[in-house]
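Appendix B. Extra example for self-study. Work through it before the problem class; the solution is given directly after the inputs so you can check yourself.
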Amino acid sequence: MIELAQNLIDGLGRGSIYALLALGVAVIFGVMHLLNFAHGEMITVSGYAAFWALGAGWSWTVVVPLILVVSVVTSLLIERLAFSRVRGAPDFTLLLTSFGVHFLVSALLLLYVSASVKNYSRPGWVADTWSLGSLRIEVFDTVVIVITIITLLATTALLQRTMFGLALRAAAADFDTARLMGVRSNSVIRGAFALSGLLAGIAGVFWLMRAGSTNPTAGIDPMLKGVLAALIGGLGSLRGAVLGGFALGLAEVLLRSWLPNSLASLTEGVVFALIALLFIFRPQGLISVTHAERV
Amino acid sequence: MIATAGPISSGHGPELTALRGSQPQTTIHNELMLQLHGVTTKYGAISALREVTLEVNAGEVVGLIGPNGAGKTTLLNTVAGLLQPSNGTVQLAGDDVTGTEPENLLRRGLALVPEHRRIFVDLTVEENLRIGGATVSGERRRELLDDMQQQFPVLRSKWTTRAGYLSGGEAQQLAIARALMAEPKLLMMDEPSLGLAPILVDMVFDLISSLRSNGVTLLVVEQNAQRMLDIADRAYVLRSGQVVSEGTGEELLGRSDLFESFVGGSA
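Solution. Structure tokens for the complete assembly:
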């Protein structure tokens, strides 16, 4: 019982990060029909920013906002330099472009920075725990879950209560009609990339704090988790993406604890098999979206 | 039969009195609101519009009729900026706006109630109207939302309902109200009566008359040619992407040859 509760908290912590990543992927897919395989690059680039800043003696208190800023700026730059040029192209072109961006960023870091793994110091409290009865809960998981809940509530408020949120939802449902209502395509797309970058930045802070290192392909893992979680949830559904993130996090943690030790290294493989099974029976993901056809 | 303008007394129709504060009381005829000159629009190699020239004067209700596939929707979408003409010019209130994006045309006073209404089904009625007022100030938007509640009692009663749950008539009223939230000078409607029960068709045509008396210029595509010509100041007949006839509503109503040639004789 205690072990299960422990695992659930662990899974929620991990799932929180996935949920934030998946939400960023879903926001972009909603407005552009772009499945962004470059979503991890925000974390790769902010990882190097964190490495340099910490190396220069900055504290994590300053590095956290730095990561958020670098992530948003990277997201906007990628939109400006790559995706704005293929706007309106077939979905497959957008998909390939996002792959291209991913490989380009990795290659640039490899060529002009370093091929080796760069280590930096993690904040001291990452490994701390606190007790609730006989439960030992990581401070880190607690912080991640609380910040994620706050972020999700704030994002919901942004989408429900502001004109920008309304424009984003309208554009995701039917871009042309949103433009007929006066919604500027540039503003809504750049806004979506800024929001997506901020969500990736928040997830990135946690990811980088736990990792303690970065390398030119560090973004692949978070990108895969985000894209997978968005697919599990049902592409285009923001609620689905969050749900998919938590489901993926819980599945990973629970499987790791349930599988016999000899199979523990296969956890990821089993997770992928489960996802494949889900898509056989529910190809649209957990939550299906019925939006007007995009032109 | 000529429909009379003014507030509608039937319980189904919207009362338009509230709009009067924001719209000019008098209509100025003979001032060009919209002018198309030699407009050609293509889908790939196929010309859906061929050298279309037409004019809409300020304060007029102009009908656009013709058989299916004549290019009526293409024409409205080209004017609204959703499609780019390969040739010709579009002028709005004297300014060349050819190739201008829809979001900027709306800011110049041109709104379109698109084919099939295209309301946002996942958004509530109120949210649909708010997004319609995306280009007006926050204060004005609140005033207009109040106005719409009064003019469209049906929408007021479904204010927080998701638009996907509205009936056809309610959805059509929402689509029109959403366009009015932008306070357009020129309102284009694409088949506003399509698929509606007869009593709701009456409501739509009464609404068009009310809008005219409130100073809104209208360009309306209608498959119900008879009803459209009844209330239109003028109309253009489109066939195979070309203007084949134009005249006042009365003139065109008298030309039985036009109606017989429509597909299925649906005059």
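Self-check: The two ends of chain B are 15 Å apart (CA to CA). If your reasoning did not lead you there, revisit section 3.
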